[in-house]
Amino acid sequence: MDKNKTNPQNLTTQVVQAADCIFERLRSEISRIGSGGRSNSHIFFIFGASGDLAKKKIYPALWWLYRDGFLPEHIRIIGYARSQLTIEKIFENAKKFMKIQDDEHEIFEKFVSINSYINGSYDNKEDFGKLNNEANKLSKQESAHRLFYLALPPSVYESVTELISLHCRPKSPGWLRLIVEKPFGKDLESSNKLSTHLSKFFTEEEIYRIDHYLGKEMVQNIIVLRFANQILSRVWNRDSIAAVIIIFKEDIGTQGRGGYFDEFGIIRDVIQNHLMQILSIVAMEKPNSTKGEDIRDEKVKVLRSVLPIKPEDVVIGQYVGDKDSKDPERQQGYLDDKGVPKDSTTPTYAQVILSINNERWAGVPFILRAGKALNEKKAEIRIQFRDSPGGMFEEDASQQDSNHKLARDELVIRVQPNEAIYLKVNTKRPGDMGFSIEETELDLTYGQRYEGVKLPDAYERLILDVFMGSKINFVRSDELQEAWRIVDPILAEIEKKNIPMIRYKFGSFGIREAFDAAAKHGYIFRGTYVWKNERSATIANEEQTKAENKK
């Protein structure tokens, strides 16, 4: 037996043991950094505790952190909202999202016991005074460290943040950390207004602007892939890379939330934040260290190098119902949502093609594509390499490509679902007596390779970062400003109806014109598509979709 061959079972055991070791170090770090060496009492406030985000993400993440021993020993959690509720009702709503195992009920009851709920307004100083008194009573001191999570609509941000600063600050030596959810404004002007307001009451060090995509395992892995592997570092530039495409797809529509979505649209909701953050990590120069400020400095530098987007490099669309579907939801189009105006010009699908004006990336298109009501749920990054020079295998490639060209190598990072990294390469077809070429994948699917290793939820990871005071995975104000600078002119063009709105069917693969535009800029997607007609979207070949989902 080859002594150098790794036994997958042994590898999994080693990974689990390594993870346990890391977790133990993190627990120690929480005790050291979280307390700041002065106060060991913490209070975590959830504003908007009665809402969807709280019940689906925040309470479950706090439960998992508590269960795994990552929360500080002395902690209380206070939910706050306008609704007349009890903590029992809060947990009744949230429990189904917490994935409580049969042997965890005892520790879960302990977790419930550190929670409480207070109702009050978002603009009344007396209510915030009562909240402060309750916090002091629960922690038995006025200097407990305080973390405030704003799971709130943007319309109340200003009043809530001002009242928190004026009436709920801990006494020294306790620190305050404010977690702010997107959207961070609706455009550059409103974003700057919010940033200016926050700066009156909080330091930049106290503000944690959360983009949950920065907490996803595969997004965080980009930095390691790029800078810990010499084989990739050498080719991560315009000489080797032909195009980069970052894709976000959802297989659901607005599901009755059209009124909220219509105020923002897919560009504000996904491209300006999630996809722009991924772009900055993919394209940034090597930071001096893994410290948060070093990484965020490089992200800002590359965003500043993004050139203005040309209107002709933008494709937008709205989904319409598929009347042939047996699913009632898929029969409904975006404009059928009761909360959406019948003359809405808000896109549910968009593709923008960006250019970065620096030495590394000049001439390489960065394609950001996002859409709702598509054929599948998927988020991935595709780094497509340039064609192999020379024509040595042109004839052998003829069975693979009618143009007698070899398929391009492509590094694919699957963010969700089924986290994976795979490299598409050309190989000799097995068993062939000549040089027939076949495209295949070097596949690292996390669920198979690291079976038994738990990947933290994005919110779980990011909330832990806030306790530790790590800002590496949070958005700085200048990052935010640059992201809005990039998309603002295009949003203005859409509002003026200068960019045509293309309709696509619920459950389709997307918009044909978007794929054509990407191809025009040099991105070649190899797949089986059967477009229904020249100017509309199509449903992709089902077998192709299944194959992609397995990767």
From TrEMBL:
<keyword id="KW-0313">Glucose metabolism</keyword>
<dbReference type="GO" id="GO:0004345">
    <property type="term" value="F:glucose-6-phosphate dehydrogenase activity"/>
</dbReference>
<comment type="pathway">
    <text>Carbohydrate degradation; pentose phosphate pathway; D-ribulose 5-phosphate from D-glucose 6-phosphate (oxidative stage): step 1/3.</text>
</comment>
<feature type="domain" description="Glucose-6-phosphate dehydrogenase NAD-binding">
    <location>
        <begin position="46"/>
        <end position="221"/>
    </location>
</feature>
<dbReference type="GO" id="GO:0005829">
    <property type="term" value="C:cytosol"/>
</dbReference>
<dbReference type="InterPro" id="IPR022675">
    <property type="entry name" value="G6P_DH_C"/>
</dbReference>
<dbReference type="Pfam" id="PF00479">
    <property type="entry name" value="G6PD_N"/>
</dbReference>
<dbReference type="InterPro" id="IPR001282">
    <property type="entry name" value="G6P_DH"/>
</dbReference>
<dbReference type="Pfam" id="PF02781">
    <property type="entry name" value="G6PD_C"/>
</dbReference>
<comment type="similarity">
    <text>Belongs to the glucose-6-phosphate dehydrogenase family.</text>
</comment>
<feature type="domain" description="Glucose-6-phosphate dehydrogenase C-terminal">
    <location>
        <begin position="224"/>
        <end position="524"/>
    </location>
</feature>
<dbReference type="InterPro" id="IPR019796">
    <property type="entry name" value="G6P_DH_AS"/>
</dbReference>
<comment type="function">
    <text>Catalyzes the rate-limiting step of the oxidative pentose-phosphate pathway, which represents a route for the dissimilation of carbohydrates besides glycolysis.</text>
</comment>
<dbReference type="GO" id="GO:0006006">
    <property type="term" value="P:glucose metabolic process"/>
</dbReference>
<dbReference type="GO" id="GO:0009051">
    <property type="term" value="P:pentose-phosphate shunt, oxidative branch"/>
</dbReference>
<protein>
    <recommendedName>
        <fullName>Glucose-6-phosphate 1-dehydrogenase</fullName>
        <ecNumber>1.1.1.49</ecNumber>
    </recommendedName>
</protein>
<keyword id="KW-0119">Carbohydrate metabolism</keyword>
<dbReference type="GO" id="GO:0050661">
    <property type="term" value="F:NADP binding"/>
</dbReference>
<keyword id="KW-0521">NADP</keyword>
<feature type="region of interest" description="Disordered">
    <location>
        <begin position="320"/>
        <end position="343"/>
    </location>
</feature>
<dbReference type="InterPro" id="IPR036291">
    <property type="entry name" value="NAD(P)-bd_dom_sf"/>
</dbReference>
<keyword id="KW-0560">Oxidoreductase</keyword>
<dbReference type="InterPro" id="IPR022674">
    <property type="entry name" value="G6P_DH_NAD-bd"/>
</dbReference>
<feature type="compositionally biased region" description="Basic and acidic residues">
    <location>
        <begin position="321"/>
        <end position="341"/>
    </location>
</feature>
